[in-house]
Write a structure and sequence with these properties.
The complex is a heterodimer of chains A (about 200) and B (about 325). Chain A has about 200 residues and is an all-alpha fold. Helices cover about 55% and strands about 0% of the residues of chain A. In chain A, helix 1 crosses helix 4. The two termini of chain A are about 20 Å apart. Chain B has about 325 residues and is an alpha+beta fold. Helices cover about 15% and strands about 30% of the residues of chain B. In chain B, the strands form 3 sheets. In chain B, strands 1, 8, 9, 10, 13 and 14 form a 6-stranded mixed β-sheet that branches. The chains are: A mainly alpha (about 200), B alpha+beta (about 325).
Chain lengths: ~200, ~325
């Protein structure tokens, strides 16, 4: 999914106008959000749940959100935070933590479609590194944009991406490629700077 | 090596993964229905008076504001605070420069005009066998105070464990490793953060309640995420709200519940680290009654950096 053209901008209209605008926005963005969420979660059911939850949050604040300079960026941030929130909620026990959650990864629902080596490898990355890979290499965001989504510095994005790629390069399941098949491996790229 | 081409190759490889998806119809009706419910709850929170809001900015107010209890903020090894002779002072009177009646930034989702009152409740003692702090763990008292005559401390616990194992909990065979192995291959780290009541050594169980974040050493020690591990822990008639923020970006945290809020509370920094911590103690009825709350993060200039809703706006819907 390449960047999609900018989103709904404010049209000083009624609530009905805002609802119609949101409906159009959601219809256009739903497939892309689910795909991104799938790469973040590795599970289509979870992906749809995360995308739906994110859009619910967006709709609840739509009259404010629609005035944002970049609605898509806002929604993307909500999506990533909603996914991260799945971990946070698991870390909010009412009493003592008996079995601490390991944020390095998570297992998707069982019985879902067979996973590729690439998805398996992505699943071994820490959540933040995985988000960096998805935003940087799937959404094609610049380091600056990824930093804005994740609420961190560009330097952190750069280092997280470098670590993630280094790990993918050495993942035995990928065999130096990205799951296109043995005969047509996709090399793990080294970092490039914005604008390259 | 052609980086651009490789970038595109990875993009294409990721694209292959999502090509297999069969995208269902967008659940527009459910989204709008739940979103509308969220709006209604917000409206209710704003208009229902929240008179029952017996609230509370916390003891942390005094600590964070640099008031009394000075030596209790962000310093030293935890054990230094254990059984401290001087009771960490606590005042329910906010000492921060901004009065809690001051409106928050216009960019805040709500504009609390009433202060959150001091909590009247207390925390129930946790039950269970007493387990001494883990000798391998690095405990630090981030903040402390006294509430309704009871001593509390916000305790941070960092430890290392074999990454292929589940980190042991108190009472289980201990697999925590010496701090000297922090960041070594084959290890992972955790940071637990929670309020501990009473005067036993920090990290003593079951006194300590410690939601935790685990991952690589870099993840745990940061820098990175703006807000990490915001937790809501309920016990007795109190709710504890605590978490870690990126101290290079965030200077204060404000708690807003319905139309009430605290003054911006300076975060507590740990010397030599980028992160800072916040903690609020609230009567349980406050959060339970409103159903949700928000934390407004501001930089040193008072600009809103972010507004977070740790529970998520659809929680409970």
């Amino acid at each position: 999914m390449r960047k999609q053209p900018g989103g709904a901008k404010e049209s000083a209209g009624t609530g009905a106008d805002a609802d119609a605008e949101f409906q159009a926005f959601m219809a256009a963005r739903w497939p892309g959000l689910v795909r991104t969420a799938f790469l973040l979660t590795g599970d289509q059911f979870l992906a749809e749940d995360v995308a739906q939850t994110a859009l619910t949050k967006v709709y609840a604040s739509w009259r404010r959100v629609r005035r944002a300079d970049d609605v898509d960026a806002y929604v993307r941030r909500v999506l990533v935070n909603t996914n991260a929130g799945r971990f946070r909620k698991r870390r909010v026990p009412e009493h003592l933590v008996a079995a601490p959650h390991d944020a390095r990864g998570y297992e998707p629902h069982e019985g879902i479609a067979q996973r590729s080596a690439l998805m398996t490898a992505l699943g071994t990355l820490p959540a933040r590194q995985r988000a960096v890979v998805v935003l940087r290499y799937w959404e094609d965001l610049s380091e600056r944009e990824v930093a804005a989504v994740l609420g961190c510095s560009q330097g952190t994005v750069k280092s997280q991406a470098a670590r993630a790629l280094a790990k993918l390069r050495t993942d035995p399941a990928l065999g130096g490629g990205f799951g296109h098949g043995v005969s047509d491996p996709v090399k793990v790229p080294t970092m490039r700077k914005d604008g390259e | 090596m052609n980086h651009v081409s490789e970038h595109d190759d990875l993009h294409a490889a990721l694209g292959e993964q999502v090509e297999q998806l069969v995208i269902t119809a967008s659940p527009i009706e459910a989204v709008m229905r739940h979103g509308t419910a969220v709006r209604h709850r917000r409206r209710l929170a704003l208009t229902s008076g929240v008179a029952a809001l017996a609230v509370l900015p916390v003891a942390a107010v005094a600590v964070f504001a640099g008031g009394a209890g000075t030596a209790r903020s962000g310093e030293g090894q935890a054990h230094a605070a254990a059984g401290a002779a001087t009771s960490p002072t606590h005042s329910t009177s906010p000492t921060s420069p901004t009065s809690p009646t001051s409106p928050t930034s216009p960019t805040s989702p709500t504009s609390p005009t009433k202060p959150i009152m001091a909590p009247t409740g207390t925390f129930e003692d946790r039950e269970g066998p007493v387990v001494a702090p883990n000798p391998h763990d690095d405990y630090r008292v981030v903040a402390s105070g006294t509430l309704n005559g009871r001593h509390w401390r916000l305790v941070r616990d960092r430890f290392v464990y074999p990454k292929d194992e589940r980190p042991s909990s108190p009472g289980e065979p201990n697999n925590h490793l010496p701090q000297s192995q922090q960041g070594h291959a084959g290890t992972a780290s955790c940071e637990a953060l929670g309020l501990q009541w009473g005067d036993r050594a920090p990290g003593t169980f079951p006194d300590a309640s410690s939601p935790m974040t685990c991952g690589t050493f870099d993840q745990v020690s940061g820098p990175g995420t703006l807000v990490e591990n915001p937790s809501t822990t309920v016990g007795g008639t109190l709710t504890e709200l605590a978490g870690r923020v990126d101290g290079t970006k965030v200077a204060t945290v404000t708690l807003t519940v319905g139309d009430r809020g605290t003054a911006p509370q300076p975060i507590t920094r740990v010397s030599g680290e980028d992160y800072g911590y916040y903690v609020f103690l609230v009567d349980r009825s406050v959060i339970d009654g409103a159903g949700r709350y928000t934390l407004t993060l501001r930089d040193a200039a008072g600009h809103v950096v972010d507004v977070i809703d740790p529970a998520g706006p659809v929680a409970g819907s």
